[in-house]
Design brief:
By secondary structure, the protein is α/β, with parallel strands linked by helices. It has eight helices and ten strands. It has one domain: Glycosidases (TIM Barrel), CATH 3.20.20.
Length: 263
């Protein structure tokens, strides 16, 4: 039976990545695997943040073998990337069957940026994707897209992405979630989509209001059941041990709905 839990992901950063940032007052010690176990989700998107973890990634990937599916970033937090990192992650995927794809975080520049809208050119993306055919599977390409980037000319880039994750940076803007998601569907009708669920208001550096936490989770569940999205992502592993109300609410909600069948 295909359950809701099978479509749940956690956004993974090395332990402590957000300490003393975004208005967070406590220091986290939770690893990505611990975060996945704490929330009760089987899939993880591992994103390099502030150049951590350091290459090589093999030992980090070993610890994540118990998880069902992994994405691994070649473009990390802040849009950081390099030829060396991209090649290393492609080699990593060959040795870890649960790595199902490559993820690009903070890939698109802000709308005011002049020039190429992405951290890589279209030719670089096509070159990377040409290496996605492995002996037993084809890797997927996932990307972060913020709602404030929906008006940018990104169609050619999004066409190369297998899964688009949509994120609302400022929590009050979740009032426009339905409208913004419809805009994404119009821009990229054929792409699989994941809905990003912040458990902290990173834009305004304050706790995520529980009514908005509930709104985005229940919306994600509804859209999953309707086939509009393929999954949801809880962000992030490195805040799951800070005793935040939104994290605890999400954990209880996952326990309640995780074993429901996906129609």
């Amino acid at each position: 039976m295909d359950t809701v839990r099978e479509h749940m992901w956690i956004w993974g950063h090395e332990a402590g990545s957000h300490n003393n940032s975004y208005g967070l007052q406590k220091a986290s010690r939770m690893t990505p695997l611990e975060g996945a176990c704490y929330l009760g989700v089987p899939n993880l998107i591992m994103i390099r943040y502030d150049d951590k973890p350091q290459m090589p990634f093999d030992q980090y990937a070993l610890a994540l073998r118990p998880l069902k599916r992994l994405y691994w970033s070649t473009v990390g937090g802040g849009g950081r990337t390099s030829d060396e990192e991209r090649q290393h992650v492609l080699e990593l995927a060959k040795h870890f069957p649960n790595i199902v794809g490559i993820f690009m975080d903070d890939f698109f520049h802000n709308p005011t940026h002049e020039g190429d809208p992405g951290m890589l050119s279209l030719n670089q993306l096509q070159s990377m994707k040409a290496q996605f055919q492995l002996p037993e599977r084809i890797l997927k390409l996932g990307v972060t897209l913020y709602t404030h980037q929906l008006g940018m000319p990104l169609a050619d880039y999004l066409a190369l992405c297998d899964q688009i994750s949509l994120w609302t940076w400022n929590a009050p803007d979740l009032k426009d979630l339905d409208t913004n998601f419809s805009r994404l569907e119009a821009i990229a009708p054929k792409n699989s989509k994941l809905l990003g669920l912040y458990m902290w208001d990173y834009g305004l550096h304050q706790p995520m209001p529980l009514d908005l936490m509930e709104k985005q989770c229940e919306t994600a569940l509804k859209w999953l059941q309707e086939g509009r999205i393929d999954g949801m992502i809880f962000l992030a592993s490195c805040i799951c041990d800070l005793d935040l109300d939104a994290v605890e609410w999400a954990r209880e909600w996952i326990s309640k709905v995780g074993d429901l069948a996906v129609r």
